[in-house]
Amino acid sequence: MTPALPDMITRLDHVIIAVADLDAAATTYRKFGFTLTPRGLHEGKGTGNHCIMFPNTYVELLGVVDQSGAQGRLAQRVKVRGEGGIGIAYGADDADKTAAALRATGINAEDPVDLARPLDLDGKRDMVRFRNVMLPDLKLPETMQFVCTHTTPELTRARREWQLHPSGATGVAAVIVAHEHPHDQQAEFAALFGKDRANGRLDNAQIKLAVRAAIEAEHGPDALKGAPQTGIVGLTIRVNEVDAVGAMLEMGRIAHRETKAGIVVPASAAHGLFLHFAEGD
Q1: For 47-60, what is the mean pLDDT?
Q2: 59 in a structural domain
């Protein structure tokens, strides 16, 4: 395999799920066996989040918490898109170098933007800081894509217990995207990740594209009920034991279906995208 170009994208950082009611979504995802971070507020943006942290990826539940003050692209996307997956954040160590490398491949990478949100723990307030490079012209359907670099990584995962999930979940294995013409995406992925990663396979996860019929054939006819026609429709979550997940879902009275490859919670029960819990890679 040809080595990736310096400062090109090689990993997934996090996936964003838009939710209509942040508290209700937090309750639902706790029933799935996830530990959630305390509510974070994006000051001046009108949005708030809870995150599901893993060692090298995470899932962000994002909702509008101030209707009158909601502004910015993420807030607008939450309002327009409705519930479900709305964004993929790729990981990088240096925002400026990554932006320059992407521009060299012909991708419109905006200048890095410095952002922050407060973190209140043990009576002390810190600021979680990160820099985003927005990629506004990418063609992945209905999906905001950007690069996220964490300038205070020690605060992003400030508590080890945030990564300990009753379900035994350990990471995001795949982001499943419904695409009418999956092969059309390969050139863009090659520009983003390098030619050897045109299939969307990164170091720690895969951006997996398929037509709806193929997704239904793999994950069951009910998986996509409640999901959008195109865009992010599902996540594969890596777990230690599928049986432990099943027990959590039974206790929470969550609709789910067992398959040969794991357990699937339909999009209608997971705020707009299905969850596929699977062991191993």
Answers
A1: 95
A2: yes
Q: Is residue 4 part of a domain?
A: no
Residue type, 238: R
Strand-pair partners of 88: 15, 145
90, HSE (Cβ side, Cα atoms, 13 Å):
29
Are both 79 and 212 inside the same structural domain?
no
Q: Do 52 and 167 contact (CB within 8 A), yes or no?
A: no
Helix residue spans in the chain (DSSP H) = 22-31, 73-81, 95-104, 153-156, 186-193, 212-219, 242-251
Per-residue model confidence (pLDDT) at position 44? 65
Q: How many domains is the chain partitioned into structurally?
A: 2
**What pLDDT digit, counting tens, does each position of 143-188 carry?**
999 999 999 999 999 999 999 999 999 999 999 999 999 999 999 9
Quote the pTM value: 0.93
Looking at residue 247, which CATH number applies to its domain? 3.10.180.10
Is 186 within a domain?
yes
Amino acid at 120: D
Which string of DSSP letters, residue by residue, matches 108-165?
--PPPEEEEEEEEETTEEEEEEEEEEE-TT--STT-EEEEEEESSHHHHT--GGGG--
Same-domain check for residues 141 and 236: no
Interval 91-139: pLDDT, tens: 999 999 999 999 999 999 999 999 888 888 888 999 999 999 999 999 9
Q: At 102, which amino acid appears?
A: L
Establish if 19 belongs to a structural domain.
yes
Say how far apart CA 201 and CA 3 lie, in whole Å. Answer: 14
Contact 219, 276 (CB under 8 A): yes
Same domain, 32 and 148: yes
Print the domain residue range for 175.
Answer: 163-279
Shared-domain flag, residues 150 and 168: no
